[in-house]
């Protein structure tokens, strides 16, 4: 009996090892790797029509679906979401308009309310992997973003190429070009200056937002936004796969992280590296050199089982390190943080690093998971803190 149990156990282990080895083999192929990193075929809105935002809980004509052209993708599917108080002020006229997809968004009242208001603020929303603009906790997130100024803060969200109704195939270069196209639309078509734009991002979107923020900061003349918010960011793809657990429990490549040489070899097969640690440092370094005012907020929950909060702590160090001419080691910075940290009890902790030009803020929450946090008041507060600092007249 013991022999049979040992035999079946050995067979089971061999099968599992074989499956895992097969998974590793698949992960070295670009196509399969893209599906794992971006999860773009998992829409999570199969039974709803994105052209009917009302089915996601919006009021009639509060959200306008439309398309933005991108050099990486033929078209990007986007939503322009009106803040609730502004909607209330123009409810009758908005309800009288046609709802649904706008072939020409510039003809819609919602667009004119954004373009023609010199005090309007715009949040460009960069979502995470998988899903569409209407998936999961993203809709509550949009409400939290505009809640602090419900007559002024508009939200522009979109699906990257290959996601939802946006055409194309996702890649690091492609997603960056898509986001740049959306920023160009906001500044050139809607006419909103960067000083009234906030870049909000979560998970995968944080890597895109850092690439975009860096891109525009490096322009001549530079374009620097009112601020950038990163929720549940990651250091880079190599560190992400070394710590990532599917559904918070099934390790992907973390078991192999114990074998540095093997893990380093597998890392050579990573197509899209998303080096956020380097981009955040370059973004800060560029703004400091140009003496441009900037604001950067990193938010992470300790109970995030998808991306551990340690990623934010490392990114925060890379950002701060870029402000120091001589640099500061991670261990040295941990001591500095401990002395300047504000303990908020059950709400978590906050650390701010200020220079003559910028504010870098780290918020580590006790709870919030990976997605739930997006609809919490901490998001509204982060948005208002950035907009009010950029323009104290906004109150």
UniProtKB/TrEMBL annotation:
Residues 123-278 form the AB hydrolase-1 domain. InterPro entries: AB_hydrolase_1 (IPR000073), AB_hydrolase_fold (IPR029058). It comes from the Eukaryota. Gene3D superfamilies: alpha/beta hydrolase (3.40.50.1820). PANTHER family: ALPHA/BETA HYDROLASE DOMAIN-CONTAINING PROTEIN, PROTEIN ABHD13. This is AB hydrolase-1 domain-containing protein. It comes from Imshaugia aleurites.
